[in-house]
Amino acid sequence: MEIRRMEVEDVKPFIELMSRSYPGMKLVTDDDIEKMADRFIDLQQNDTSTALYGAYQSGQLVGGMRFHDFEMMFYDQKVPVGGIGMVAVDLLHKKERVAKSLLEYFHKHYLERETYMTALHPFRPDFYKKMGYGYGTKKNRYRVQPHHLPKGKSKAHIEYIPLEQIDAIVGFYNKVATKTHGMMIRSHSDFERPMKQPGNYTIGFVKDGEIKGYVGFSFQSEHGDSFLQNDILIHEMVYEDTEVLSEFLTFFHSQHDQVRSIYFDTQDEYFHHLLLNPSNGSNHLIPHVFHESNTQGVGLMYRILDTVKFLDSVSEMNFGGESLNLKMKVKDSFQPNNEKSVFMKVENGHISIKQELNTDVEIELDVSEFSTLLMGVVPFDTLVMYGNATISSKDYIAHVTRLFYTRQKPVCLNRF
């Protein structure tokens, strides 16, 4: 099997292949496929941060994927991250290890570019868990009646943001991103397509000529309902402070005369504390008396490709202020070069990697769990409790937990 960057003439056949692999995308007509192919041909030729790669057997395209060169905030530091999406295998070549070969090439591609972390949205979480990917922060979907949102004193600073002001949106987003663990730095093109999408609206909080928050949303209605009854689906809401959030919520509260429900998709695990009534209106009770408030989903997954090199790249970071000598055995069946014992000398939260070390304690875990732990998604003591990590001395569980603990779980708004 040969894997290489796609030539332009292979893009449309790949979109056709993908339409069969993911019929839920509803790429049904020739026009649907043609429009998507044109868009990706343009990206393949002109976007330096993303590219399509194909898998070929005897010269025939049998699968493909899309790479993304991201910059992600790892706490206070920018790190390069390789993203992968649109992994698709032709129906005639399923169960021929094509997807495995694509992922192996993906990892090799980014290791050669000194990028030691990758991320993806899984079509099947268990498939990628076996390849060393750990779970990211869950996303919550809340269905809220508008009058259950707190009504503030004003919505005077809320206005529509036209496409001509896209640079201001990008600038504000990146300002927030640089302060938020897990967020990816974005460019103009990341906002252009959703803002141009028919039926999408963008509003912003504008004060003294400066954007200090934005919301992208659309209306939706169930088939057969009255045109006077609609729901609002919020695609993305980013804000700077309490004043901005209050005006956004006041704006959506004021839509209650013609909007039944507002859907918030958020990675904020405390969002229900904001609502006057956190119940989603289903009247469904979880025994004994717990009112159903939201649905949750597992999505973005992370992977460390090279444990030593990644830890070296973030050596300036303070890990919990801890001081200890730690031996960590990382199991990695999919990336054998990464299966190793790592000796870490930690002094006041700063990690340095040693060849050998007299250690205080030893831990062992799979790279998928280590990736999740390092991103701050799950604490170490929980992994031990679940049997997903082991430790040589229980006296050090609290120390290792503090070493990797963070109050802020990673937030990622990118769709790829």
Automatic annotation (TrEMBL):
Keyword Aminoacyl-tRNA synthetase: no
Keywords from the UniProt entry: Acyltransferase, Transferase
Top-rank taxon, per record: Bacteria
EC number: 2.3.1.-
N-acetyltransferase domain residues: 1-156
GO molecular function term, any single one: acyltransferase activity
Pfam families linked to this entry: Acetyltransf_17 (PF17668), Acetyltransf_9 (PF13527), SCP2_2 (PF13530)
InterPro entries: Acetyltransf_17 (IPR041380), Acetyltransferase_Eis (IPR051554), Acyl_CoA_acyltransferase (IPR016181), Eis_dom (IPR025559), GNAT_dom (IPR000182), SCP2_sterol-bd_dom_sf (IPR036527)
PROSITE patterns associated with the record: GNAT
Protein name per Swiss-Prot or TrEMBL: GNAT family N-acetyltransferase
Organism of provenance: Pseudalkalibacillus berkeleyi
